[in-house]
Amino acid sequence: MDTQHNAPDGRAGVPGGAGRGALDGLRVADFSRVLAGPYATMLLADLGADVVKVERPGIGDDTRSWHPPADHDGTSTYFLGVNRNKRSVVLDLTTDAGVEQARALVAESDVLVENFRPGTMERLGLGPRELRALHPGLIYCSISGFGSGGGAEIPGYDLLVQAVGGLMSVTGDAAGEPVKAGVALVDVVTGLHASLGILAALRHRDATGEGQRVEVNLLGSLLSAMVNQASAFAVAGVVPGRMGNAHPSIAPYETFPAADRPIALAVGNDRQFAALAEVVGDPGLAADHRFRTNADRVAHRAALRDILTQRLRSAGADHWSAVLLAAGVPAGPVNTLDEAFAFAHKLGLPGIVDIPAAPADTAAGAQGSASRQVASPIALSGTPARYLLPPPRLGQHTAEILHRLADHVSAPNEAAT
């Protein structure tokens, strides 16, 4: 498994990664925690934004303690996975001094991101109406579980949203129980929607000087992300159910047992199906009246599965993947995560990058740590993603940031460390 090389100045990234980022000059006050918000702000940070992560005294982001697994310092890999390229400041928002410091931080920022339960920021005196009155150009992004209306009091946890939002109803075997996705997929999709909304609002501000509020919620993001399944209901009134790894509209588009492990076939057209039939040694399948078109194959899915299973069990998944891909048939083994990273490396994709400890930590004699990170999936030819800072220790940059804000606040935050 390979990693990207360090830039000449010691900062990690692609060659030239120490240059300008696409979002250089953008300042983000990040009041979010757990996943959807931190994922959105990490995407912005990778592209050059200066993200200041506001954390609670002594506790910080909840995910700091979500382990195992953890790194050698005891910080959870969950936290480390979505908080690189950020600086951490501890503010006690239960005190007037902490709120005043937060307001000073927002005053110098372009974007605020928060995912408290709706109404919390307003009670703290940090609501969108109040802050945008002081800072008309502010982009204020709120992320919630179920919106700020009737669902304001429902906790926004990914598992809950997968359940009530319908995703679990279409995930799992038909005869089995509903199953969640293997990662907090709804949080990730919502983070993507948040970052897209922020960039759209910034584009509008560039043209008009006007900031605005961006609101996204987990339930709305999931319903949008259900795409064809949601459209089947919205347009045709079809309520889909669980089909295991099969697809409601395409066949064969599922996993099959090979001699050693499962293989996925994603046959999307008649040409690919004819090539599949040739490779598995049964060219007549393409002319069989049950399988001539995709609609025919969907109607006779069970019979087709039986035939293909018998053929594919004669060799291993890697063999079939190689010969099918050579014939233009989308196919691949069901990899474990280590195999998936190895596959990305084989294809020349970055996969994993190493971020060294921040130079300031070394100079101060602090316990700075290098960090292995999953590379950004966004490739920009002129302003590529940069990996300048490892995920911060709790409050690592508090003194630095509060010193900068000192002229704008009347009292220090005694709880900050």
From TrEMBL:
Keyword Lipid biosynthesis on entry: no
Keyword Cytoplasm carried by entry: no
Keywords, in A-Z order: Transferase
Cited InterPro entries: CoA-transferase_III_domain, CoA-Trfase_fam_III, CoA-Trfase_III_dom3_sf, CoA-Trfase_III_dom_1_sf
Stored SUPFAM superfamilies: CoA-transferase family III (CaiB/BaiF)
GO molecular function: transferase activity
Protein name: CoA transferase
Organism name: Streptomyces plumbiresistens
Lineage: Bacteria, Bacillati, Actinomycetota, Actinomycetes, Kitasatosporales
